[in-house]
Amino acid sequence: MVQVVVPDAGAPVLDAVFVVADCMRMRPLQEPRSQAATHAGTAAMRFRGVTIEFALPRGGHYPAVAATDLAVGGNEFVAIVGPTGCGKSTLLNVAAGLLAPTSGAIEVLGAPLAGLNLSAGYLFQQDAVMPWKTARDNVAIGLEVAGITRAEALARAQAWLKRVGLAAFGERYPHQLSGGQRKRVGLAQVLIRDPKILLMDEPFGPLDAQTRQIMGNLLLELWAGDRKAVLFVTHDLEEAIALADRVIIMSAGPAARVIGDYTIDLGRPRDAQEVRLLPRFHELHKAIWGQLRAEVLKAYAEEVA
Amino acid sequence: MSVGRAKLLVLQALVAVVVIGAWHVGSSVPIGGVYFLPKFFFSTPADVGLRVWTLFADGTAKIVGCKEAIEIGRLLSISDPCFGKTIWQHLLITLTEGVLAFVIGAVAGIALGFWLARHALMSAIFDPYIKMLNALPRVVLAPIFMLWLGLGIWSKVALGVTLVFFIVFFNVYQGVKEVSPTVLANARMLGMSERQLFQHVYWPSALSWMFSSLHTSVGFAIIGAVVGEYLGSAAGLGYLINQAEGTFDTTGVFAGMVILAVFVLIIDGLVTLVERRLLVWRPPSAAGQG
């Protein structure tokens, strides 16, 4: 259950301080770079002092995310990395409009977000395609519900299936496809609507290592076409560096915050597999891992305590 | 299982041979001067087979030893003591009752299931009453339906409806409730309106749950019809069995049971065909349940 709180300009900061102090997790706020300032004006999406709390069943609140400011540029691929349970996915759900923040506000393409964020496409971690529709019908549905004729929707769906390498699998039902193939269907289903923003919640999480890398390359290839703004949540730092322009590090929960923001200056086009062999990749990995490791250990200590 | 198909069929047939053989020996062959299965109570497989055969070959329903019935009929100047109905007509009546019970029960169950699944407050209010009605053995409702609706088909349909309704209702309710939150969130992110969510998400999900219980609910529709007929009617399979019982016609009762079993088996086969067509999207392990 999310607390419904009317956004209030003064509240986020106070809330955050309260939340952090309450959890005895006070630590100096490091802000390597002020995102809000850097990307002013061009942001596809902007979080302003977003705080998210969950009501606990026995009363009281669990602070999931503490005051977060974050901006995603118009053509920017941003990856959020953090330990398990740090509220990465929660933040993404807020960006999608599936969850209302306790305080703070989201701006999408310059306008405040109210309700669902329909300029965004959302690729979920779990299987989200409809099991009762064939691959082609699943891809076409986003166009059909928008009022496009079925014939045209199906034709365009077939073209998208081809782009994700499933041209011959249109008639299959999801249970007849492999995990990787279902992700491809999901990707086509989201991209066929041509959203301005792409939200991805550990989309390749359930896949095996090889398939993940192949899917990473497919994603980069599709993304290179029109460079949508991407917010990509993952717990895999290597994946984040291999794919993204910027890697955001979140602290361990409760009251997770952005504690690191790294620009990934690896060239494009990139090969998500090959790039991992570059010396610069290792430098970046080493630098970011130093900070992430402490948070992962903290989250782990929390879990076994 | 490593048993081949042919071998399995032989073994299955063997079960029938043993059971029918034991029945035959017990009822027709005196062992030490004693029939273990006296004809009066158990009839014999040959008699039952013959009766089933004559019922269909003859056309007219004579589960009651009709010679006697005709005698009585003459005395009472009833022109047709067997009500002029062939076995086919009796089957048709039972089938009609079953189909009506199923359709009405399913439609009501789907409607109420959807409504309550989407309205948490209504669901909470009606919850104890629905549980109470479901806990009630439905057979006790038969007398009240007889009083309200008479001895015609509608009292049987009503009984069947009470059986079918709850099965369909609970499954549709569950189907709507159990829609994967991820699939639902995804559908909403794809821009579906409430109406489109119903059409593309809730409805298919509820339907799959309903179909998984289709064998049970169709079976219950027939049970409702037959039990209703048995308790008071002038036609149908349940009526034929009741008539046979009333005249100590064991052969007639067994013949009615055999016909009923085959009848339900055929309907169940049809349900399987419908199910295979409509639930192609389900993984085989899940589709085989229920």
What structural keywords apply?
heterodimer; A: 305 residues; alpha/beta; Rossmann fold; four-stranded antiparallel β-sheet; 37% helix; B: mainly alpha; MetI-like fold; 2 domains; globular
Walk me through what this model shows.
The complex is a heterodimer of chains A (305) and B (290). Chain A has 305 residues and is an alpha/beta fold. Chain A is built from nine helices and ten strands. In chain A, the strands form two sheets. A six-stranded mixed β-sheet of chain A has the order 6-7-8-3-9-10, sandwiched between helices. Chain B is mainly alpha-helical and 290 residues long. Chain B has two domains: 1-40, no CATH class; 87-287, MetI-like fold (Orthogonal Bundle), CATH 1.10.3720.10. Chain B is 77% helix and 0% strand. The longest helix of chain B has 32 residues, at 87-118.
Oligomer: heterodimer
* CATH 2nd-level architecture of the largest domain in chain A: 3-Layer(aba) Sandwich
Number of distinct helices of chain B? 14
Structural class of chain A: alpha/beta
Report the order of strands and helices of chain A: HHEEEHEEEHHHEHEHEEH
* Low-confidence region ranges of chain B: 61-65, 286-290
Measured between the Cα atoms of the first and last residue of chain A, the distance is: 26 Å
Query: Largest sheet of chain A, described in full?
Result: 6 strands, mixed
* CATH class assignment of the largest domain in chain A: Alpha Beta
From the 3D structure, determine the CATH topology of the largest domain in chain A.
Rossmann fold
Beta-strand proportion of chain A: 15-25%
> How are the strands of the biggest sheet of chain A laid out side by side?
6-7-8-3-9-10
Q: Which CATH class of the largest domain in chain B is shown?
A: Mainly Alpha
Q: Describe the biggest sheet of chain B?
A: none
Radius of gyration of chain B from the CA trace?
Answer: 24 Å
Q: Could you tell me the mean pLDDT of chain B?
A: 84
Number of DSSP strand runs of chain B: 0
Would you list the SSEs of chain B in sequence order as H and E? HHHHHHHHHHHHHH
